[in-house]
Every structure is written in structure tokens, then in C-alpha cells.
Amino acid sequence: MIRLLFIFLLWPCALQAQEAVALYGPDRDAASTYMVIEGSTDVTPFTPLLEAFAAQNPQFAIRYEQWSTNDIYTRAVAACREGRRSADLVISSSIDQQVKLANDGCARRYRSAVTDTLPEWAVWRNEVFGLTREPAVIVYNRDKVPKPDVPHSRFDLFRLLREPGNRYTGRVATYDIERSGLGYLFAFADAQQATTFGRLIETFGRNHAVATCCSAEIIDRVASGEFLIAYNLLGSYALLRAAEDNRIGVVAPTDYTLLLSRAALIPKSSGNFDGARRFIDFALAPAGRAALTEGHLIIEFSGEDGSNSLNLPASSLRPIKFSPVLLVGLDAQKKSLFLELWRSSVSQIRSP
Amino acid sequence: MLAALAYGRQASDEAYDKLLAGAAFEISRAIAVADGKPFVDLPVAAFEILALAQDDRVFYRVMTEEGITLTGYETLPAPTSMGATVAFYDGEIFASKIRLASVTRRMAEPGYSGNVRVIVAQTTGARSALAWNIAQKALVLLLVSGGMLVVLAMVAVASSLQPLRRIERILRRRESVDLTPLEVAAPREVEAMVGAINHFMSRLARRVDAMQNMIADATHQLRTPIAALRAQAELASDETDPEQLRQIIKRIHQRTRGLSRLADQLLSRALVIHRADAVARTRLDLRKIAIAASEEIDHDDAEAAAHLRLDLPQDAVWITGDTLTLVEATKNLVTNAFKYGLPPVTLCVRGTPTPTLQAIDHGSGIPEALWPEFGRRFARGGRTDIDGAGLGLAIVRSVAEAHAGTLAFSRPAPGTFAVSLILPPGKGARE
């Protein structure tokens, strides 16, 4: 299973196809009900949750399909407009797209005692539910970045990159926000969060930062030493890799750290509403939380840095709130203006 | 209930419409022109305003006058009129009911000039919740104030009925013979009732008095003739001489006739007194009373009737009164005239100056000195020997008083004596 997964993960992001498929529970023919979950999450970190759910609900044959966030969105919109059966549950890290799906009336409402325990920012209209807790972090190479250089905030990063011709020039990476929905979401949130955004993209531009695709690829290249520092990576993937590879260091910026919660949504055209709501309740209940923590999809922010936790004062956390405000970033004109700004300031960013 | 809902609806509509308009203005300010085309740098603040209605879906559309959508939801309905700067209306998108606000901005930039319309819409969840909330509060207020009104009304009724309870207690405590007026401090509203009770009691008292007087009179009047009769009867039982016996029987017969007349008069007086208070008055012609009385006298005593003359005016003499008692009074006038005066007797009716019934005889009449007290309730100790004498005039006076009239004596011509019953004019007198 894991090997199969790796083959898929190495495929370029731009490929518009289902990236991986994993099956859980009994065979489809043997099960009383069949359930399809579409998600943007990699199979490996998501497997503990899916397996725990399948163990508790042996009547379900579960098919998990990993798609890119854009594919998930366009497929859900099409199913919603045409009224045909779609996935039974959709879980995407592009919470802006999930909110838009709900806004456009493509989601089914569900409320239970368990969903009521969600913090206000992680639920909208009882249609979009935040399952995970994943920070946007700075990843660095432990061997090649000396301890005093490790940036613990954006201001550390500015200082480090201030000198022209410093040793990090061309070796800082971040998501290519034109191609990564998550990168765009983080960058857009950065722009809302602080006045440091302008300085940030200007610094990136001056240092020939590399904008490229996909968490796994960037982390690999940090581990190999090709990149020394990567900005705004998804903490869940970074910590998962850091647990296996001690060359990788992970820092949650202390000035503020964006917190993302993967959004689950039951499409209007879900053929298995019962399975979908059970899955949401399970993922939000203690057993589900434990499974997500095991997959590094829930990161704690208390105590020491560890494989599932980062040391960060709670006041530095900036959860990205589920709300129609996220629609602004999806607006075509707004997006083109934002990308234009990005491009003009970070003109030197090269994509491989 | 409906009013409260409508009020809540209106209040929440006003509040949320302002929110919508605020967001639309915010967006319209972010419209700029580049390369001869307007474009929008959608402001996050506008959406943060709209997100105040937490669970409501948000839709927007920026379009040119020509209907070209620059950005946003192309299916969002535009307002029907392009005129107003700000417009609010209801619509639908994705089969959901929405409220829309439209703001028009006039662009006059190099390369582009024209109107750009910003439409912002929201589902009505928060708005309805607020409306319902306001309605509920209004309703609670209404119920509480209504309840307070009811309590106040109950207190007011209880306290205003207090005087009635007091009157009830006073009446209950009274002895059965006590008919004196009530003396209770009462508010204006109850005073009328106390007045009515007092009026009723005074009437009752008058009648009880009249009855007691009558019984006293009757006892007094009847005792003497009955004693005389008994004496004659005792005399007869001892008498053996048939001639003497016949004499006694003749006297007994006379006494009996006198007694019978007396009883008649007592009864007719009782009748007069009873009717004075109890019978409704009608409009009637005094001449008819005189005729009816003369007919009855004719029937009772043909001999007297032969010497009776009627003197009636041409026109009707209208009065308001009770026929029965007036006829009785007239009969008494005439009978009295025959008994104490000398025939012929004239029964005379006059319409002017006031309606008058007059019996004129040719006797000497009653001495002037006795006129003032004559005809009052007959004086005790006098005139009982004459068969019911004075009782007749007492009846006439009673009838006169019951009709608010008077009894008068006069000597219209030398050698004549007249007793008159003078009545106030009736309602038809001027007809």
C-alpha cells in the first residue's frame, strides 16, 4: 500500500487525475453499504482514521480516492449542477472551495452533539466541518542551517535574507501559488494577516526564492539539501517526514502561525448520507481524533516540539475561519490581481 | 401576534438591509478602471461585514450597465429599474430565497465612463431569526402588559364594587320595618343607585304608612257602628213586644246600610291609595270622567240621579290620570253634595284656567272656618255617626293629591256651595 502510494505521490501535481485509491473494510460485494470518500489528503496520513472507522463500522466498504483540490471542487460542482450522484463525502484542504460549495447550495446540513463541539471557526452552517489541525510551518535542513540561523518568525527570515548574496539565495522554497490551491490559500491568508506580506514577497523576489509544487517534493529537496528553508509548508506533512528523517527541522513562526483545518462536506448528491455523517461524527470523536493525531493531521501546540506537537503560544495561532470571507480569494478578478502582485514582486521565482 | 411578527420583520429587514448596502458600497468603492475596462479588487472588509450574519450564504455580482458581468455570480438577479442609487429587493438563487441590495456607481475615468452596478445578496436566515426574536420579545412584552392590565382591572373592579358590598351589608343588617333612607358615602357612579334605592324605599315607606293609617281609620270607623249594632241586637234578644222588636230591626237595618256604605268607602279609599302609587297614568278627557260618574250614580241611586245636572264644556279637557280613582272621587263629590247639601246638584267640568271637577249644591255647606282642615284624613272623634261622612271628601283629597291636584271649597253664588277637584293640565291640554 505504502509503495503504491509513493508512486502516485511522485506524479506531477498538474496531472488532472485521481492520484491514489485505497480500499478499507470488506469487499464491496460483501458489504451491506458502499461509500466513496474523495479527499485531497495523502493516503498515508489518512489511513489510521479510515482504518479505525472501517473497524468500527464493518458494514461499510470504503473507497478513498485522492484527488487534487481543484479536481475535487470541479467534480463536486458538476455533480451538484447536474444532480447526479457524487462522492458520498468530500474532504479537502482547500477550505475556500469547500465553503464556496456550501455557499452555492451543494452541501447537506448535518448537526449532532459531536459537531456542536467544534470551535466556531472550524464549522460553517453545519455543512462544512473542520476535521484536522495543521499549521503552516517553516521547514529547514538541520545539517545545513546553523542553529542561530533557524528562523523562528518571519522577522528572523527577513534578517537572514537581508544581505545580498547571502548563502540562502536561491535556496528558499515556497508553494507555487498559481498551481497550488493550498499555497494560494496560505498566501492570501498571509496578505490578510499582517503588513509583513509585502516585505515577504519582496524578500523572496530579491533572494530568487523558488516557487514550486507539492509538499512532498519540497520537503524531499530540503532533506537533500537542495533547498535550505521552505516557507508555509503544511505542518502535518512536514512533521510526518521529520519523524522519519532527522535532517528535517520544523518551526512554527512565533509572530503568527496559520492554522488550517481540512474541511469535510457532505454533497447534496451524496448517495450515502448515513455513512458520511457517521464518518464525520467518528472523525470528531476521541477515537477519530487519536487516529488523526497518529497520522500527524492533528498537531498539538503545547509543550515541547515533538512528532505531533510544536511549541507555540496559543495566542500566535491564526486559524483560517470557515466563512464566506474566503470567497473573496476565489473571485476571479481578485485572484488575478493577487497573482499579478505576486508575479510582479516575485518575478525571479522560477518554477521547475 | 401578526403585528408583532410584522414589526420584527420590519426591524430586522432594516438592520440587515443596511448591512447589505454597506457591503455593496464597500465593493463599489473598490471598482477601478484599467485598460479601458472596469475591474474590482474585491475588498475582504465587505465580506467581513456580511459574515456578521454568521450562517447566511453570500452572493455578489458586479456588472456594467449593458449587463456584462465583471465578476461574481452571473445568475444573481439584477433589479428591475436601473434608476436608483441603492435598491433593495427579494429574489432567488440556487433555489434559495435571498435578499438583495444593489448599488450603482457612476464611473468617469479616462478610457471608461458609465454605470457599474454592484449587487450583494444574502440568504435570510439571520434576518428571519432576528425578526422572530424581536417578535417574541414584543409578544412577551404585550402579554406581560396585558396581564398587568387584567390584574389592574380586577383590582379596580374590586375596589369600585366595595361601596356596593357596603350597601349590601347595611341593607342586610337593617330591621324589616326600617325604611329610612340609606346614608352611605358612595362614589358618583354608585350614588345614582343609592338614590334609586332610597326613592324606592320612600315609596315603600309611604305605602306602608298609608296602609297603617287606613287600618287605623278603618278600625276606628268600624268600631262604633258595630258596637251600636251589637247593642241593638242584644236589645232585640230581650224584647218581647213585637212592635218594639220591629222598631229595633228597622234600626238594625239602617245601621247595617250605613255600615255597608262605610265599608264601601273605606275600600274605595284603600283602592285610591293603592292606585296612587301603583297604576300608570293615561291621557284622558275629564268630561268622560264626569259622564262615567253620573252613570254610576244613576245606577246606584236613581232618586239622586234625577236631581243631578251635568254642565260640560264644548271641548275636551285633557288631563293625565287614573280613570278609576277619578271616577270614584267624582262619585264621592256628588254623593257628598246630595247628602249634606240640597238638590239640585250640578256636576260641572271646566277646562280653564286649569282642569276642574266641581259639585255645586244649594245647601249651606261647610262653614268657612273649617275649610282648611276639611277633607284631611277625617278627624278622629268627630262625624263618625254620619254614614262615612268626611270619608268621601278624604277620598277626593287623596285622589287630588295622587294627581298633584288640590281640593277647594267655594260659594260660587249666594245659597250655593261648591267642592272642587282642581287638577294640573295634562299633556294634551294645548292640543
The helix content of chain B is 40-55%
Q: For the residues shown, what is the average pLDDT of chain B?
A: 81
Q: Which structural category fits the helices and strands of chain A?
A: alpha/beta
Classify the secondary structure makeup of chain B into a structural class: alpha+beta
Biggest sheet details of chain B: 5 strands, antiparallel
Helix content of chain A: 25-40%
Count of extended strands of chain B: 14
Question: Which series of helices and strands of chain A comes N to C?
Answer: HEEHEHEHEEEHEHHEHEHEEEHHEHH
- Give the CA-based shape of chain A: globular
Average pLDDT level of chain A: 87
For the largest beta-sheet of chain A, the strand count, sense and barrel status come to: 7 strands, mixed
Biggest chain pair interface? A-B, 18 and 22 residues
β content of chain B, as a range? 15-25%
Number of helices of chain A: 13
The termini of chain A sit apart by 29 Å
Q: Going across the major beta sheet of chain A, what is the strand order?
A: 1-3-2-4-13-6-5
The share of residues in extended strands of chain A comes to: 15-25%
Question: Spans of chain A of 5+ residues with little confidence (pLDDT < 50)?
Answer: 1-15
Sheet with most strands: strand arrangement of chain B: 4-3-7-6-5
Notable features of this structure?
heterodimer, A: 352 residues, alpha/beta, seven-stranded mixed beta sheet, 13 helices, 14 strands, disordered N terminus, B: 431 residues, alpha+beta, five-stranded antiparallel beta sheet, five-stranded mixed beta sheet, 10 helices, 51% helix, rod-shaped
